[in-house]
# Entry
Amino acid sequence: MKSHSKTAQFAAAHRAYHFKSCFPPILDDDAAEWLLSSPLSTILNVALLRWLFWRPLVAKVKPISTFIVIRSRYTEDNLRYFISNGCRQYVILGAGLDSWALRHDDAAVFELDHPETQQWKKKRIRSRLGSLPSHLILIPVNFETESVTDALIGHGFDPLSSAFLSCLGTICYLSYEALKKTFAALSEVCASDSRVVFDYFQPKSSMSSPDLQLFELLDAGGRRRGEPINTLLSTEDTARLLNSFGFRIIEDLSAHEITERYLSQRKDGLNIPGFVRLCCVEKWSDN
# Structure
């Protein structure tokens, strides 16, 4: 990857568009818009341009757009509960243009992502705020080749204190070997009772025809940007992987369960793909 992640840009754009266009918003993310590059930031900031350019694009991938918002809302719901119980460390793996640290200061936030994406984000924050918030630590790392453990410890993370971690929109882009290495590192560096929230995609064999078409559209876009989808997981494979590294599943929500929790009371017809899942796990033993 020779430049900042285009996938991270689009994820933030979907959150920004939702905040401006859906009432009530599922996620109150008023910072996503100003993290974006031009012309995306201009398009999303002007109502007519949103209508003419972004709205038709979203129409093609609307279920994915909605899921991008919901996965952040799910993470922040869990994080809020964990912070209320004393957690003061939040780690975001594959942070992209996540904006939680720009909207809250309840915990030290360690954001890990590709060096080019981190450099882009640092410039955007400094141009808006003048400097990085004191509780935000941006850590450049290549998950395929570098140690998550070393990256965290080298930037002040306390392995003896519980932490909350999220990994959104990242699992599917890692190779399976990099995924195992990441969870091995988390098992090593996280204290017992730490929690991890992540999303993942199920195998193509389980997808309906409409879901498969949507998945292929999503994957084709990623490949054009140099970010192909590499890993799909069944619920059984996910459970085995987690258990092998000392994590127990608190909940692993299907698309139906996610819909019931976040969309059942809405009247705007929002929906999500059937192949997505949201998982919250707890470190329960030392491996």
DSSP finds eleven helices and seven strands in the chain. The CA atoms of residues 149 and 185 lie 5 Å apart. Residues 61-283 form a domain with the Rossmann fold fold (CATH 3.40.50.150). The chain has a mean pLDDT of 94.
